[in-house]
């Protein structure tokens, strides 16, 4: 049975009720999110429905997409994810409102499904307990109730007439409609305030933060040598990266809050005896300090996902020596409070390099986003296979038994840092005056050492640059070269660094699966 439409006059169907129902859906969605965030103050930041769904999305993201996100948005990738998630949720909430107006059960099922996804995502987080689904469940109930109450107050549609189609266009809104809009705005406001208060309370001045503020780190048994004068070349970025400018890369949508008072490091697996280390025991041990340059495997040639700092911590080999790895072990899988894992060759943690369970950065406790209270730092390896932040567990194991977070997503299981160099002076696209031109930058070959840096102009021969003072084999090294008699015109400069094995490769490689390669180049105009 079909309705004959051919002969029907062109009357417009009243759209307004759908629009208003969509608004009601949006407001109810805001209430769901806000109430969820408030409940998450009690149950923990990673149980917040938005955070939990975002985290599940991050974990399900294939390596190439993560790589593309970091390439496109750098360290703003989390913000972009949050905004995208909010837009998708808003659209679904509006659809649920419209559906519920026509058939309550359809709208309600959609809302419950969304809530169910969030509850499930929260229960999957490794750092949440039995109450993990609570914020999503309570938020969903509050959202459903809001939607129902708002839809009950939906003003009746103005009857369409053929002569003047559509509802009242101008003049004051009828009282029913005004009340509805006010209530909808109120619900939306409650939701937004709840979300903001919840988020601030969950990540703000809580246990870990307060503990950090009250902390004083012990002095190292072996302090780092102060860097020799002359490590810094004028115009090049700071040799010691200020913590506030230090790149941040991790999968955590909210910074894990780990209270040192309850922190434990569990060392287990292929060991003769399991070891459990408390914060007090860690601080009472002989701590050492070392300058180490940390680099991200996602750093493109010439990029900024690399930084150098002075770390304070306990050598990992001291902890492993207490546990005594068995002869068949070849890897340590470190695990963080929020479930991230990294696979580090056992050898890199037991040889004489300064592989640390770090508690300090730049003479202060680790900033929360850089792993407070304890993280790993291993010279010579990319962060994704070594630098676990908020670390709570070391499982001594074998590469052929388990694989770590990024290895499961297509990245190499081992990640030695590739020798690299970049040009920082002059800036990209710069115009310089003909004559002698200073070219300068940074090079790194952690734990092997930069032995030489060379610069090439166009297709000319490689020229040796001057190396700045050496701050240690695990730190990057700055360099400077004077380009004699630069001639007017457009030129391309390239740089390459040498480690003890020879020059870095000039063959370009993508960041996947084990780090970018190729020469950093600079287009410059000489006038
Ligand atoms: N818990 C945790 N630790 C982590 C990561 C992570 O996602 N979670 N990312 C690693 C990666 S890929 C890098 S490059 C370094 C970055 O450390 P930073 O943010 O202190 O610079 O942390 C490593 N440690
Ligand atoms: Mo990384």
Automatic annotation (TrEMBL):
Name of one Pfam family that matches: Oxidored_molyb
UniProt keyword annotations, A-Z: Membrane, Transmembrane, Transmembrane helix
InterPro entries: Ig_E-set, Mopterin_OxRdtase_euk, OxRdtase_Mopterin-bd_dom, OxRdtase_Mopterin-bd_sf
Top-level taxon: Bacteria
Residues that span the membrane, as ranges: 19-42, 79-99, 106-124, 130-147, 180-202
Record domain Oxidoreductase molybdopterin-binding: where: 254-402
Name the UniProt record assigns to this protein: DMSO/TMAO reductase YedYZ molybdopterin-dependent catalytic subunit
